[in-house]
Amino acid sequence: MDKTKTDYEYRMDCKPDFSMTWVTIPANQTLKVEASAMAAMDTNIKMKTKMRGGFSRFLTGESLFINEFTAENGPGEIAVAPGAPGDLEHVYLEDGETMYLQNSAYVASGMNVAVESKWQGMIKGFFSGESLFLIRCSGPGDLWFNTYGGMIELDVDGQYVVDTGHIVAFTEGLDYEVTKVGGYKSLFLSGEGFVARFSGKGKLWIQTRQVPSFSAWLYPFRPVKNRGS
Question: For residue 228, is it within any domain?
Answer without folding.
Answer: no
